[in-house]
Design brief:
156 residues; alpha+beta; Immunoglobulin-like; 9-stranded antiparallel sheet; 1 helix; 9 strands; globular; binds zinc ion
Length: 156
Amino acid sequence: MKTLLCLLTAAAALGVAPTFTATVAAADAPHEHRHKGQGGPNGGRLLETEPHAEFLIEKDRSVTVRFFTDDLKPVAAAGQTVTVLADPKAGKTRVEFEKSGEVLKSKTRLPEGDGYNLVVQVRSKPDAKPQNFRFKLDLATCGECKRGEYACICAH
Ligand SMILES: [Zn+2]
């Protein structure tokens, strides 16, 4: 009788556990997808600013920053300022931006090299406290999402 009870308990545990896991996964999935799986509409890295800023490195290594609402509708830059601090082996370099129509464009190109650290500072207006986004410059293309690794939206 004791053995039977044990088996029943084990079966119940097995039966309940997967259901529970599935429920939790379903509840978490949309949230996780929104944050990990959302990239900039032009292939750049989407920064958690309000509105979102897309940091896009162009082929000539200049940088374009565009702004988007939560559902990725473009909005014109409105007083935001962006500064990039690049830290290549050759020495720290500051890249300034200027408004160009509805977007911000870097005045200079990113320094030579790859794999160095970047800090992107975004201010909602010139005198606001900056939001800092640190990541590695990685211009290789991700084999899965086909975006630059610096803007990869895969979970790895
Ligand atoms: Zn990827």
